[in-house]
Amino acid sequence: MSRADDWLRQAMRDLAHAEGSLKLEHFEWVVLAAQQSAEKAVKAVFYEFGADPWGHSILKLLEKLPLKKAVPEALIVSAKNLDKHYITSRYPNGFAAGTPEDFYLKEDAEKAIEDGKKILEFCKDQIPAIRNKADEAIE
Q1: Residue 1, pLDDT score
Q2: CA–CA dist 137, 41 (Å, integer)
Q3: All domains of the chain, ordered by start, with CATH?
Q4: pLDDT for the residue 67
Q5: What is the pLDDT of residue 131?
Q6: Which of 38, 39, 63, 101 has the most CB atoms lying inside 10 A of its own CB?
Q7: Are 41 and 120 in contact (CB under 8 A)?
Q8: How far apart are CA 14 and CA 69, in angstroms?
Q9: What is the Cα–Cα distance from 109 to 25, expressed in whole angstroms?
Q10: Residues near 15 by Cβ (< 8 Å), separated by ≥ 6?
């Protein structure tokens, strides 16, 4: 049984959390939630293939996706942008001094949501295509 739908549902919830945090001006939480959304969305695609993804780098996960078509370059750029936030948005020692709150701006948050949405939508589109191919192979 594939857990892809569970991972995709959580990815959508994480993105909604990012959008809620934007309203609160908790920009460090926005970028983290957007990063988590994208990571979980890509992992959902792996689970749909029956694979067991490992790691937290969205870039590395996208590069290993077993898709017949190449991942668009715009998504690679989005993944690189989001990967930068995985550590620095979470821990005070991600910077020489201060806390993540001191460093993240509204622009960072808005860009992270935009990048997260791109990756989430791409992944949501992949899962039905994978299922259709699997159904065709069974017939």
Answers
A1: 60
A2: 25
A3: 4-138 (1.20.120.330)
A4: 87
A5: 81
A6: 38
A7: yes
A8: 27
A9: 9
A10: 33, 34, 37, 113, 116, 117, 120
